[in-house]
Write a structure and sequence with these properties.
With about 210 residues, the protein is mainly alpha-helical. The chain contains eleven helices and no strands. It comes from Salinibacterium amurskyense.
Length: about 210
């Protein structure tokens, strides 16, 4: 990332829209992989529920900047890349639960797929429900089937993409600037869905490092 991060960094939806990865030096890439594996294995090997709670709430206390420094420029088809995308999704939801829930609810109404069922979403999905769902998905990475958690995150992103695109269509004549912003966001969410689906496939093939 081009930005200089300062704790705690608030990752709002406008920063999500401009998020891009980049190339890392080899040592930074290795550190990203090592920390991702250590975090995942440490959580899965612990019987203490408080460990998972602290991992999930880490960015609430520290901001997402420290994770960004380690993981944001990792390949999308990697473990740190997958973890980064899900933590980023959660950060955006935590900071704009109302706006994100509106996109999600519209996406459920407009997307003719099983993605809503895959996420396990409660319908209707309000701000508190969407924050709870984001936590459930992140918790699933550390306690449940990792591949299923990735699939749920991918479906989550697809629903948001559909919702953002649908509302963008509504706003095209009334507020072209807002429509463009939502169209960009829909594209970002759609790309993230594809990347997370790819990570799930690589994980099941034993190739997600």
């Amino acid at each position: 990332m081009a930005e200089n991060f300062h704790k705690p960094t608030q990752y709002s939806t406008d920063k999500f829209d401009t998020f891009e990865g980049g190339e890392d030096p080899a040592q930074i890439m290795r550190a990203a992989h090592d920390t991702a594996h250590a975090l995942l294995e440490g959580a899965r090997n612990s019987d203490d529920p408080a460990v998972i709670d602290r991992i999930i709430a880490y960015t609430d206390k520290n901001g997402i900047d420290s994770l960004a420094e380690l993981w944001s420029r990792s390949s999308a088809a990697s473990l740190p890349g997958a973890l980064w995308r899900i933590y980023l999704l959660r950060a955006v939801i935590q900071q704009d639960a109302v706006g994100t829930s509106l996109l999600f609810q519209r996406g459920i109404e407009t997307l003719p797929t099983i993605d809503a069922a895959v996420t396990g979403a409660i319908n209707p999905t309000g701000p508190e429900e969407i924050k709870g769902l984001a936590d459930q998905i992140l918790r699933g990475l550390f306690r449940g089937d990792f591949g299923v958690a990735l699939d749920r995150a991918a479906s989550f992103s697809r629903i948001l993409a559909s919702g953002a695109g649908s509302i963008a269509d509504d706003q095209e004549l009334l507020d072209p600037e807002r429509a463009t912003e939502l169209t960009t966001r829909a594209s970002r969410y759609s790309l993230m869905a594809e990347e997370l689906t790819g990570c799930a496939k690589r994980y099941r093939a034993g190739a997600l490092d």
